[in-house]
Design a protein that fits this description.
Blueprint (H helix, E strand, L loop, with lengths): L5 E12 L4 H6 L5 H6 L5 E4 L6 H9 L6 E4 L3 E7 L5 E2 L3 E2 L1 H7 L12 E4 L6 H7 L5 H10 L2 E4 L6 H9 L3 E4 L9
Parallel strand pairs: 1-2, 1-4, 2-3, 7-8, 7-9
Antiparallel strand pairs: 5-6
Length: 183
């Protein structure tokens, strides 16, 4: 271990890694966030990144999380750290309290027959190479449109808009990916 080069003399909540990948942020970075919501007076500790992205700020605002953030970028000691249990562990558990923390936006009324294809066709080519994509997705989308489906590119909409849109759909389909985590 390296000796600390920074000391913070106040209690804080350890949240964990701040991932800038959408799906990992939703599933892993937020796994301890419920404790922060019930203790807004305490700062929260993140590591791995040095600031929030705009969409992370929007999600935290929707979750009503306003705790001051401490981004750990060097060996740091704290006078007191709270380490809440994880409310979500992939493939293992989802605590009811964690679900309640995340289920913070009232859904839009569902529109009968509304079908949505979550498209990956406008993703950056580097993202497609890392995350997978459907060859000739544009041709599939043309057929889906003919069959009455709407093509939706979530990255072009705010988180709030995505939540309202998705909740208004009777059917949602697409290639497996992080966009489904928001649901």
């Amino acid at each position: 271990f390296l000796p600390p080069t920074r000391h913070i003399d106040e209690p804080a909540i350890f949240i964990g890694p701040l991932f800038n990948h959408f799906g990992h942020f939703l599933l892993e970075s937020l796994s301890r966030i419920g404790y922060a919501k019930t203790h807004p007076e305490l700062p929260i500790i993140w590591f791995h990144e040095t600031s929030y992205t705009p969409w992370q700020k929007e999600i935290l605002q929707l979750l009503d999380i306003h705790n001051r953030a401490i981004f750990v970028t060097e060996p740091t000691s704290f006078s007191q750290v709270y380490l809440p249990q994880m409310g979500f562990i992939p493939w293992q558990k989802m605590e009811p309290e964690h679900f309640e923390t995340l289920a913070c936006v009232a859904p839009a009324p569902m529109i009968a027959g509304k079908k949505c294809w979550i498209s990956r066709s406008f993703l950056d080519k580097n993202v497609k190479k890392r995350s997978g994509y459907l060859l000739n997705e544009n041709r599939l989308e043309e057929r889906l449109i003919e069959a009455g489906w709407e093509i939706y590119h979530p990255q072009h909409h705010s988180i709030q808009e995505q939540l309202q849109y998705f909740s208004s759909c009777e059917r949602i389909a697409g290639i497996q990916g992080s966009a489904f985590h928001l649901l």
